[in-house]
Each structure stands twice: as C-alpha cells, then as structure tokens.
Input
Amino acid sequence: MENIDSFLVNELANSNLRAYENIFNAHYLNLCRFANSIVHDEDSAQSLVQQVFVNFWENRKSLGHIEHILPYLTTSVRNICLNFIKREKRNVDLTFVPMDAQVENTTENQINIAEFEEKYIIAISLLPSKCKLAFEYSRFENLTNKEIAQKMNITLKGVEALISRSLKNLRIALEEYLPGSKNNKISNSFLFLLIKMVRQKVYSLL
Amino acid sequence: MKSIEMNIEDNNIYEIIVRSFSEQLKADETEVLSKWLKSSSSNANEYLDFQELWNTSSRFQLSSKIDVKAAYNKLKRVSGSERKKSAILLQISRIAAVFLLAVLFSVIYNKFLTEKPGYTNEPRTMQQIKAVYGTQSRVQLSDSTIVYLNSGSTLRFPESFKGMKTRNVELIGEGFFSVKKDASRPFIVSANNIKIKVLGTSFNIDAYPGNSFCTIALVEGVIQLNHNNTMDGGIKMEKSQVCFYNASENTFNIKHNVDLNKYIAWIEGKILFSNDNINAVIEKLESWYNVDIEMGDKNIEKFRFTGTFINEPLEQVLNILSLTSNMQYKIYSAQRTDNNTYTKRKIILKTKHL
Output
C-alpha cells in the first residue's frame, strides 16, 4: 500500500491526470460517506469532498511528504466539514446518541467521534479487497448476504466469512475507539451508555 | 456439552455473529452464541466491538447513489485538471474571452437590436416632400441634414435613419443639401441615375428630369459621384467644382473654380443667369414655373442671358429677358385635354422682327 501511495504521489507531482483519477475513483465514495456522517447532507458532503480534491490537485507538487494518501484526504475532509458546520452554524447531529442519554454533547466527544469515523473509513479502505467488497455491499449497499454471494459468485458461508474477517480486522485497527478497549478515547459516560445499550441487546438474545 | 462444542466448530462462531447482525438467528444458533458470550468476558467485549463497528458503519450509508464518474467529470470541469494549461495560455484565453464577449455583444446589437436596410426586409416608412411650382421648400431630416427643394422638386427620404448603415434619400429635380456630418453613416443622394455619396458637406444637385445635364455644384467638403449600379470607384469632387453629368452619354464633366452663386441662388428665391445660353434659361424657367417653353426659331439658340430675378412672376421674368435681348415671347394658356386634365402653359420664344 505504501509503495502504491508514494508512487501515486510521485505521479501526481508530475501532473499525471490518470494518477489523480485513480485516487479519486478509489476514495471519492467513502470520503463522501465520511463527510456525510459529519454534515448530514449528501449534497454538501459531495461538494465538500470535491473541494478537497480540488485542493489536492492544486497542492500536488508539495505532497512529497505524504506516505498515505487516504489519511491525508480524510483529515482534509474532516477539517473542511467541521469548518462547514461552524460556518453553517449547524450542530453535529449525533443521531446515534439517544435523546435521553446522559452524555454531554461535548466538542471533545464530537471530535473524537469524527476521528473515530475518519479512522474507520481509512480502516475500511485498508481491508483486503474481497473483504472490503463484501463488507461494503453488506453495510453500504444494503445487500443481503445471499445477494452478495450471488454478486461475488461465492457461497453464503464465504460471504459471512469475509464479513467476519472484515470485522476482526476493523476491530484491531479501531481498538482504541471501541467499547471493548480499556483506554478508548470516547468519553466514559458515553461508553458506559453504549455498553449498557449493547448489553441490553445482547442479553435479549440470551 | 460435546454437541454444542461441535456446533461451534462446525458453524464458525464469527459467521453466527455476522448473521446475528443481519438476520434472525435460528434457535440453535442463538444458543451457540449465548454460550460463547457467557464463556469469557473477552468474548463479550469482542461481540460489543463488532456490534459497535456494525452500527457505526451504518452512519456511512447514503440515501442516494453517488455517480463517481460523473463527479469526477464535474470536478474536472469546475477546477482541477484544466489548470494543467499554462498560466499564459489561461491569461490569453481570458483576454480572448473578453474580446469574444465584446464582439458577441456588438454582433447581437447590430444584428438584432438595430434594423438595417440590407439585413431586414421590413419596408421602411418613406416620406416624400414636393416643392410647389414657383416656390422653394426647406426640409429638415431626422439627422439634422437640411435640404432645400427647388420648385417642383421631390425628395423621398425615410422617416428615420435609425439603424441604417447609410442615409439614403432620392431626389427628383433640384435640391441643395447641407448634410450633417456623420462619418460612420455616409449620406447618399440618388438622383437621375447617379449616386452622390457624402459624409458632411453642402452641395447643390440640379437633376430635373427634362434637363440635358444633371448638375452638381459642391460648396463645401468632398463628395463622390457614382453611377446608380456601382458604389465603388466613381469620381471625387472637391470644393468649388461643378460637375455636369450627361445621362445619355453617361459622362462626367467637371469644371473647376466656379462661382457657385448661380447654382445656389434659388435657395433665396433668386433666379440667376450669368451669360447662360437659351437652353439653360429655358430649363430653369420650365422647372421653376412649371411651363413648357419652345423655341420658335433657331436664331434664339445663339442668345445669352444675364440677370437676377427675385420671386418674380413668369411674365415679369420673360418681360425683362425680352427687354434686354432681341427676343419676344408669347404665352398660351393651359388647355383642357380629353381626359379632363390641363396641359402646362406653353411659351414660345421668337426672335424679334424689328
């Protein structure tokens, strides 16, 4: 991955349009997903991500220090989105937090959550390609495992194996943001609530 | 107990976990999962983490499908890759765009916002003014050009010159033109098979239909004479020149340094003869008083006349001419014709028989 990225950065410095298009095609969609998770408006998300790509092209000569392209882009997207929210005086709509939660909607939490999502998007892109494909089909395209099996021409079990492998990889990559981790970055009260919620769901299974 | 452990091995626990997120588990699968969760806290933590990952990923779902290819093309248009062009080229294209815009506007203006005789088939409202016989008329055109029309002369001109490339008028008879200067729109007088093109001058045209010559006297500036059907080339005339155009022979004959008074005296109501032969006198009087004048004998052709007449009736003029020369005249009153019109009065000039 490192090799590919530094190769692309190098080509970009030579104004190679195909390298640029390659990067765009690889990351645009997931960057839009990430941006949308912050601004909660798909049109704004798209235009913000496009702005990031415009800046990316304009700065192409001075990207020599970048080893990984996606983290650079996600950080750019995160910043442009947070500025957009500030400018638009929009609140980050943390819809996943229940209204009765005793969680303070602190800036720190918002930033940590955005950071989590940023790392998440990067982690997804780093999944092995088949895992990534199966995971994205399942989570983003809302396909059933059966449909994914047909699309990827593998067995149902194969799909479940790919998705579970994805989850394992993601768990390792995102450990510090997950409830199972002891020193995770998301505030304790929030974590506590989350754990409680999940436990409830889990126990309901039992 | 053994059978459950067998189950865990057969149905990979992670596949059950994945299934548990997306669909209803079967009874035995639920049993396997709860057993696995209870067996250790690390198992429970792992499950919680998976669930968190699963839930968080749903935040990345989009309600509408994003067309990456279209987005890339849009991006290319809006900004980025086009900037590969050199800055100079960009600068040039900017300048060119400004010029293009200017040209575009002028084209639109010329083509659509103004009417041109050449471009539009719309008939232009023409006005016609005719000076009554024995009088002179003064006309001011819309461009402030002033035209004096001599007795019985007709001027046809458009109500307005707006949007015309040239200011075109037609003259039958005699007229004095004091043309308002407008370098962008030449003033063109069509008279008796010739065209007189001017920018801003004053000149006299004597183009009465019956005359043997069409006479153009230039008081000021420069004019260009052309035949009716051509607009290029032609003859240039300068100040104080008089041009005689012979329509039948199609020839121009220019006289230099002429006293122009007798050509323009009519404006003040004067008829001016200075050593003119009888033909010139006859043409002048015929057009001025709307009469037919005939020569009764050949001897009169040799006569020359000099004199100034100011607003005098025909009889008075003839009287004076006959007093100062060896010529007599006889006036025949107008005759009623078969179709109830009247002929012109007829005057016959004869040599006096002493």
